Structures are given as C-alpha cells and as structure tokens.
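REQUEST
  id: r-88c1
  op: predict_structure
  target: HEAT repeat domain-containing protein
  payload:
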Amino acid sequence: MRSRDIKEYGLNIGYSKVGITSADSFTDYVAEVLSRGDKYDFFDFTSTNPLQGAIPKNIMPEAKSVIVLIYDYFQNDFPEELKKMIGKIYLARCYNPLPGMLAHSRLELMKDYLSANGCKVNSSIGIPARWAAAQAGVTTFGRNNFAYAGDTGSYIVISTIVVDMEFDYDKPTMESKCPPNCSACINACPTKAIYEPFKLNPKKCISFNNWITQDGRGSISSFIPYELREAIGGKIHGCDICQDVCPLNQKKLKAPKAVDRYIEQIAEDITLPAILNMTDDFFMNRIKPIMYNYIKDKRYFMRNAALAMGNSKNEDYVKDLEIAITNPDEMVREYVVWALGKIGGQYAERVLKSSLANESSDNVKQAINQALAQG
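RESPONSE
  id: r-88c1
  status: 200
  body:
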C-alpha cells in the first residue's frame, strides 16, 4: 500500500484532503501550549488530552505515521435561525459523530481500509489535529486559531488515524495565508477570547462556555462567569463569528449550496423554549443527533437556552422561564432567574417574587434578589 493509495481512497469516500506525517512527538506543539500558562489547564480532564496525544508513541509504541483526513462540513447550508444558535459544524453532524451517522461510517471505512492493508490503527489518540494537519501539508494556520484548507476555508473537520507503518510524508505547511495586518477575527470576537493573532484564551471563548463548563471537571464547573454571559448572546452550542468574518472564508460562505433537508425538516422544532423545557423524547430526537458532541446531559442545554433567552430581552419568553423556574435542578433555576432579571418587566418581576417564597436553595435565592435589584 502506497501513500497515494491511501489518499485516493480517502478522496473516494468523501474526504476533501488527505495528508500523512510522522508519528514522532509534536514537541513544538507541547512547548506552545505550555507557554500559554493556565489557559489550557482544562486539558487535564479530557479523555483525549492533546498534550498526551502529542507523544503518540507513549500511547501506541509501534506508531509510525499519522493519517490526517480533512472533511468539508459546509457543503450544504442550514436555516439562518439555527445558525444564530448552533455552530455549523454541529448542524452538519460530522464532529465526534455517533454510530449510525455518515461521518462515523466514513471514518470506519478508512480504518477498515488501512487494517485490510496490513496496518494496525488507532483513531482514539488525542493527536493535536490542527498541528498535525499543517505538518501533513493539508492545512495552514489562521489568526483566529482555526486550520484552513484552501478554498474550503476553515469549515473543516480534521480526523487523525495513527498507524504502525511508514509512508512517504507530505511537505509541512506550517504557515499562515491571512492577509497582512488583518484583525477581523480579533475585532469581531464578542468575548475578546482572541487576544493576539494566533493566540486564544479558550476560557473566554463562547464555545468553551457553552460546553466545557460542566461540573465534575477538575477546576472547571458549570458556572459561566457573569462578565461573559451577555457577550455569549444567543449562542447555545458553538460559535462561528471569528470564522464568518474572516476574508479567507468569504469565497466558501458565498458559494451556492444545497439545503440540508434533514436540518430543514427539524428546524422549526428547535427553539429556545423547547430546549429550556425539553422532554427526554425531545432530547433524544432533536438535540442528540446534532449536539451530542461534548454535552451528554440535557441540563447544560437548558442552562444555555436560559442564558440566550435572557440576552434576547424578549418578554415573550417569560412564560417559558416561569415554567422552568420550578425545574428540580438548582443550576437550571439559577440561569432562569438570571434570564428573567435581564428581560425585566412587571411579569418577570412577579415570577421572581413568587418564586422567592418557595425557593429552597440559598444560591438561587441570592440570584433572585440580584435579579430583582436590577429592576
């Protein structure tokens, strides 16, 4: 089996680019991450910690090569109302895909192909994907910290497979093609998470606060800092702002695209009120197929929906928040209270005062008093 054979097979099953690089340690990546201090200390709780995956042979001693697969997830378009709330990569159902999804089957086909041709394969190592992709010559770096694959832009999923065979390796493209002095992504980021070109404070990133903020993750908890809540706006699962403003992505954004019929069919069901007060059936049939990438517990989707409702300042949401303020989950109630305080008005004030008398949690009581004080 030749490098060319692997690449042609990958293109045949739907990947847009395939590159191959050595499985030697990604020492420069490790040094770069460690230079960022505690901004990336949350890597410790991840099951595929890229600092560990950066040394593949510690996990798979016989590792020789990394196959890097690039998939263009923005081939179809999605309803505007959903893109305001959910990142396009999740609407495309191709990131950390569930079994039974096309993207999952595509990766399995590639693994089966490599295995059938004598390779031992491992796709569960947390290889630093964007770094590996540039080393494999299939992407460059963007100032917004995303990887770019030519005309496809940064709307890509990078998958990596470690194998125990050596191949011809591609010429690295450890470079950026961003326009000189461009700061579009930095200027557009609502939370100022991108603080310098090529440098991100993930703890300020909207996506991080959507789904990394979960209880039981070391120093990370479900608490979203007050100073970031308004800047998150209506985003409930991911954010594309820094990608959508990028000059390198404009050709891809403007290119004609077919409609994603599945998303189009279910779009009208996916509303903030439906998510806030979702049933288990709704979670299984509407949330899980799209947004089961990082969040496995519906309480965090409810939290995110409440935050988005508050930021909307839409008084029509008060009746839905009134239902949710009786949710047995203390965390959900706290964010519902915050949302009611942001929306304000007489109806919201009545709901808050009524709830105060029946609330058992000191934290939620404090949140209610803070919300009432805003009015």
